Amino acid sequence: MLSPETFFDLSKTKHQSIFDGVELVWDVINKIHNYILENLNPQIKGEIMPGAWVDKNVFIDEGTVVEPGAMVKGPAIIGKNCQIRNGAYIRGDLIAGDNAVMGNSCEFKNVFLFDGANIPHLSYVGDSIIGFKSHLGAGAKIANTKLIRENVKVEIDGKIHDTGLLKFGVILGDTSDIGCNAVINPGSIIGKNSIIYANVTWRGYLPAQRIVKLRQSQSVVERRS
């Protein structure tokens, strides 16, 4: 139940070989850096607009546009027809599939994006895997480090798994949605086609096809002068 295939359609990336031999999905996070170095052929086939900055050890495929004000540090492999929007900050160790969106004022570090992953506004994503056509709403944050510096642990069905990772953000399954301003705590694992409502603070394992709702208590009173 914790294999990559549980969370992702591996045909939705050109880089499916990174998952070879992986039994626990989070083990891919530590493979991103070396995979990039072994497969990187630095080349710019897309468009780098004036005012953008792109490192030397970066591959950008056809149709991808890097807008003014974006910064792309290597090593990184970025697919076709991606949008790297104004103010995006890629800190290195990024694999982005085709048609991915890395939006304005978003920061990425040690991340694997499947095809069609959409992170369009004001988000931080680190040490994470984002599935096919999954989406983060504006301001959603992925926390990747515990305040107490120790390995991130995951509890599933009463069993605690020590991931061996000091930094581990989220496993976000295919076609899942995170609402605006949600906070996803370290070591969260979210199944395919699930939804987390806006402003939720989430921690832990969420199976596929689930919705996490937030119920707020509100009162309306008369405004007096």
What is the CATH first-level class name?
A: Mainly Beta
What is the helix content? under 10%
Based on the structure given, which CATH architecture is correct?
A: 3 Solenoid
What shape does the CA trace take? globular
Structural notes for this entry:
With 225 residues, the protein is mainly beta. It has one domain (4-212): 3 Solenoid (UDP N-Acetylglucosamine Acyltransferase, domain 1). The chain contains two helices and 26 strands. The chain has helices at residues 4-7, 32-39; strands at 43-44, 47-48, 53-54, 58-60, 65-66, 71-72, 76-78, 83-84, 89-90, 94-96, 101-104, 107-113, 118-121, 124-130, 135-136, 141-142, 153-156, 159-162, 170-172, 177-178, 183-184, 188-190, 195-196, 201-202, 205-206, 211-212. Strand 17 and strand 18 (159-162) form a beta hairpin. The model has no long low-confidence stretch (mean pLDDT 97).
Brief description of this entry?
Helices cover 5% and strands 33% of the residues. With 225 residues, it is mainly β.
